[in-house]
Amino acid sequence: MNTSGARVSLTLFVLLGSILFLSACTVTDTVKDILSSTTPGDWYHDGLLKEEYKALAFATMNRENLLQDMARGRGEYLESMGTLLGVPPSRKQDFFGRAQRHMGEFTLSEPPKPGEIVTALRSDLSAVLQADLEGVHAR
Length: 139
Description:
The chain is mainly alpha-helical. It is 74% helix and 3% strand. It has six helices and two strands. A two-stranded antiparallel sheet has the order 1-2. Strand 1 and strand 2 form a beta hairpin. The model has no long low-confidence stretch (mean pLDDT 77).
């Protein structure tokens, strides 16, 4: 029997097992983030994700990409989040700029939880819409 071939096979097997284990841990952490805030039945109705949880689910599943887009002040993940939150197309650039400014607050501590990201972005949306209202009343 070729022992060097067996060692290579064993090494590859252990490496593959480690990769699968780490992938499973990442998925488990993501699911744990989702389930830690509410009970799972609260998120769904008739097999569909409830409207009020779509942004949180999106932030949970796409946190790293969303944070990168927020840091840049643009990107497909930030744009998708803006759509989920109901940002008017005419106000997207203002929303993106406010989201980018929020990153300064996040980088001072550990990476934000998905709920913290959504809360910050909803606050940005409120500020954008408030600015729109003030602009209408000033005219």
